[in-house]
Design goal:
The complex is a heterotrimer of chains A (363), B (313) and C (259).
Chain A: H1 24-43, H2 47-69, H3 71-106, H4 112-116, H5 131-162, H6 167-179, H7 184-199, H8 206-231, H9 234-242, H10 247-258, H11 260-275, H12 279-284, H13 303-312, H14 328-362
Helix pairs in contact in A: 1-2, 2-3, 3-14, 5-8, 5-11, 5-13, 6-8, 7-8, 8-11, 9-10, 11-14, 13-14
Chain B: H1 13-48, H2 65-101, H3 104-119, H4 122-147, H5 165-189, H6 193-201, H7 206-235, H8 238-243, E1 246-247, E2 259-260, H9 263-271, H10 276-312
Parallel strand pairs in B: 1-2
Helix pairs in contact in B: 1-10, 2-3, 2-5, 2-7, 2-10, 3-5, 4-5, 5-7, 6-7, 7-10, 9-10
Chain C: E1 5-14, E2 17-27, E3 32-36, H1 43-49, E4 60-68, E5 71-72, H2 80-86, E6 87-90, H3 102-113, H4 119-132, H5 136-139, H6 152-165, E7 170-174, H7 182-195, E8 200-204, H8 208-214, E9 217-223, E10 230-237, H9 238-243, H10 248-254
Parallel strand pairs in C: 3-8, 3-9, 6-7, 7-8
Antiparallel strand pairs in C: 1-2, 1-4, 4-5, 9-10
Helix pairs in contact in C: 3-6, 4-6, 6-7
The chains are: A mainly alpha (363), B mainly alpha (313), C alpha/beta (259).
Amino acid sequence: MTTTEVTPTHASLPLTGPRLPQWAPALVGLLAVCAAGLLAMLLGWGIVAFAFLAALLFVVALPLWSVSVEGSRGAVDRLTTSLIWVAFAGAAIPLLWLIWTVLSKGLPAINAAFLTYDMRNVVGDDQGGIYHAIMGTLIITGIAALISVPIGLFCAIYLVEYGKGTRLARWITFLVDVMTGIPSIVAGLFALALFVLIFGPQIRFGFGGSVALSLLMIPVVVRSTEEMLRLVPDDLREASYALGVPKWRTITKVVLPTSLGGIITGVMLAVARVIGETAPLLVIAGKTDSVNLNPFSERMTTLPVYIYYSVTQPGTVPFDAPPGAEAPGIERAWGAALVLIVIVMALNLIARLVGRIFAVKKG
Amino acid sequence: MTTTHETEPEVSPPSQRGDRIFAGLAKSAGLVILAALAAVFIFLAVEGIPGVNQPAETYAPLSSFLPYVGRLLFGTVFAALIALVIAVPFALGIALFISHYAPRVLAAPVAYVVDLLAAVPSVVFGLWGARALAPQLVSVQAWLGEHLGFIPFFAGPASVTGKTVLTAGVVLAIMILPIITAISREIFAQTPRLHEEAALALGATRWEMIRYAVFPYARSGIVSAVMLGLGRALGETMAVALVLSASPVVTLNMISNTNPATIASNIASSFAEATPAKLSVLIATGLVLFAFTFAVNFAARAVVARSERKFSR
Amino acid sequence: MAKSIDVSDLDIYYGDFLAVQGVNMTIKARSVTAFIGPSGCGKSTVLRSLNRMHEVIPGARVEGKIMVDGQSLYDPSIDPVAVRRQIGMVFQRPNPFPTMSIYDNVLAGNRLNSKRMKKAEQDAIVEKSLRGANLWNEVKDRLNKPGMGLSGGQQQRLCIARAIAVEPQVLLMDEPCSALDPISTSAIEDLIHELKSEFTIVIVTHNMQQAARVSDDTGFFNLKAAGQPGQLVEMNATKKMFSNPDNEATEAYISGRFG
């Protein structure tokens, strides 16, 4: 018998550690906000300094109180918990701030004319619009999707259905992952270098932008499709083989339909990602003030590029404008930014909706 | 090396042609991707290599390629590191918040909102950073310059517009936050429940449980998430181009009017007026950026792949 | 000084779902109490509520009273972390910390509580606990190897060593042998016999022979009806349960005519 030495010595169970009351974090938080607010008012600090001070007070005060009551372990737990809550709050602020800024500055700029006019011959604060940029965005992104989806889809099929475990497939998987990290401007330079070599140094056209965006979009499509295909259970494939159905028909009739919802979601999220790209289009698609619906000739403006040029070349504030008014370019930039965000968010929401609808059907 | 081909069921002869065509299509799509990646290197090299040896005035204010790209590379890495230093603690905090701390009603919406943050186009971030964030940071940077001026980073004099590399770093940090959060959140959430409960059943507090069970499991995942964030920050163009009025300088001062440009922002801002000679220089810098981010991403993915093998064993 | 546990009117919820209803029982000190019953009837849930591990699952909560040593476990003044230190737990599947050596695994709980221990003190605890778990002779030459390198049965005994290293009052075991082969199972059962002189042990098991072999008292859990919450049907001395139970459902289950 070797266990006789294990003799617990506790006379009674110390189950009650000294604990702070449940409302302690709330109280400390309130006090921190009050103290920081008071100081900020007295010293005339801005909102940033106030928020920073309040967070700092909270993160310091709660563990200090805790260490005197609960001991060091409890205090460390309190400290990390408060830090994590502060991190969450700190990250929420810029997002809310950004959305609020874009909404409040963008909404006044938007009206029917803004959405249906282009910028041709627009001088100063004449009514200009973003019609040409919206069309450019839709055309260039649409063509990029037309290029990327088949390549991405087939590549994913190869990775999951045909190449599983081969050295080539492992390399492709790895390089696709690496490709997701290509800087977008490099994609633009690549398209530029490619077409300059073919058409000469002055070439700028929408299709080149599509090629650049495809380079960014393909890896996203491959990754999401691959994941979806892997979710299809092997039983389904085997059931189909057992019926004597050849492999490619199994893929097109069984595997793809089963994972269709997820694939569509992935494609739409990929589109949402590249639709906001600026840098590659700045380089290869160029900028124009007029509507151009032909992607194979002449420059083509997209919304992000429009925003960029509106900000960098904002024009001057008109003489008769009320004080505090911004240059017309800046106002249009905010308007275009709002439109762009609405498009991106709508794509995201629809993508998730599609995913959910198909998922329900499956289950 | 065994492949699944050998275990494929025998198919009837007439359909074999269809199968072969389909398999060929799939495989060539994969090869197209490899070819595209190679093409990026090749075309950038063909167009960019002449840029290494251009007349001295092309590199104004410098006189040759290496110092030119060197200073830009410094600016790129510097801005990206500022972004990382700011973003990583927040990203890990939010990831832990979603995976282990948030009340259940809050976790899913927060995760969703972080994903939305990733969807905001970079040009909008740049616009917001330049027009909304920068003015707010003026007083902060003035304070830093006044009180922490002895640290080289805050040597000042503080910019009065707020359009500094520090501001650009903050914007970059917000932009790379989602990717770091998303990856580390997933890894945190994958921590086996068994190990978490083992720690809790020993009488660990929540933080001790995270240290015992979650972090050891997630370490390599965090490393790669951070490196992927770094890759994103290195290549980001618009946020920096819109926030900074930059010049190719080397300075650690984060709050002054003279700010180092990054490779990407330099391309964007010099591109419109570039002569063919300058264009090839810009493409050459792009090639350097590509090689650099490629190396960072390559390393990050290699770490992930290695750890995946380790855990699947 | 092992402790007895008194449970009265215990209801356990997962969110709005009532999983277990109206449990009343007394678990005697320094004895082995087994919980048996068909799958999904709440045995493990009740076990996990005894050291407040139940509430680790989001949305889970408990109503009713669990008294240990005159203190109510679910009183607001009770620190769940302290509870889990006093009431150890061994899980269904062995779960040594994958990044730690055998040595560090055993000490994991102690290191949480007292940051500084002398090396000799640590060595003593490791040896004592591993001996207590009947594992010492098998691993004494490779204490610095990772705990994941052991066989399943050894890993489970390592987990028991880790649980008893903090000298808890009560040891809860949630189907500790369900993932093990018969030889490892028998080793663990022998160990339970030895441990009961020091600890109050509660074990959940699917294996009725195991309950009969190791336990002094047995509680039989069952669902009231399909879709209804689980309940404690009968609790009695194991000998009586397996020879002449009070309840017909118990007899039906034990004799294999049901479940």
